[in-house]
Amino acid sequence: MVVMAGGKGVRMLPYTESCPKPMLLVGGKPILQRILERAREDGFLNFAISIHYLGDVIESYFGDGTSFGVSITYLREDSPLGTAGCLGLLPERPESPLVVTNGDVLTGIRYSEMLDFHERYQAVATMAVRQYEIRNQFGVVKTKGVDFDGFEEKPVYRSQINAGVYVLSPEALSLIEPGHHCDMPTLFDRVLKSGSRAVVYPVHESWLDVGRPDDYILANETVDL
């Protein structure tokens, strides 16, 4: 598994002034530790962590992973490479699909089941998605030109959002140019343009993206994530 932990966490200021976002404490443990422990319970023992902003804090805490019952290597970004670009730093191209997760996502997802899903659908890239609802605060007036055509009281709009967890086959990694910036949406577009299959994996388990101060407060209120 690759955990992307190199971002600056600008939206989480002032919490991230001297602490990388994945190291913020949730229920007394860093978010990153919770991700590693959750994955370890699911059978994952080998991790690569991408680091950049205050990366020494992460590296000094986890070391080689021995004290956490796992093996950890580090992908050191000299400059931010985006949510997929860090994969170009892997020393060797894996021979089988790997799971990639953002370093600020707390979820009850079964990573092994997502991996099985990816292989069952013979995908090159799989993106975990979560249903997101937005309720309009106002009644919506439907019109045809200037004519009134109906009314909908505070409708709810549902969409699928990127949940920040992925499975990538080795073929997808060949679409990343080492040392160059690349985000996950760009990589998925490249997969499609190459004629390969990209699929989505619905997440029904608990999920929280700790991207804003309000999310951080919520995470500490729902630590069982």
Would you write up a description of this structure?
This protein is an alpha/beta fold and 225 residues long. The protein has one domain (2-129, 162-221): Spore Coat Polysaccharide Biosynthesis Protein SpsA, Chain A (Alpha-Beta Complex). The protein is 25% helix and 31% strand. The chain has 7 helices and 13 strands. The strands form 4 sheets. Strands 5-4-1-6-11-8-12 form a 7-stranded mixed beta sheet. A hairpin with a 2-residue loop joins β9 and β10. The longest helix is centred in the N-terminal third of the chain and has 11 residues, at 31-41. It is globular, with a radius of gyration of 19 Å. The mean pLDDT is 92.
Shape estimate: globular
Describe the sheet with the most strands: 7 strands, mixed
Would you identify the regions where 5 or more consecutive residues have pLDDT less than 50? Answer: none
Residue share in β-strands = 25-35%
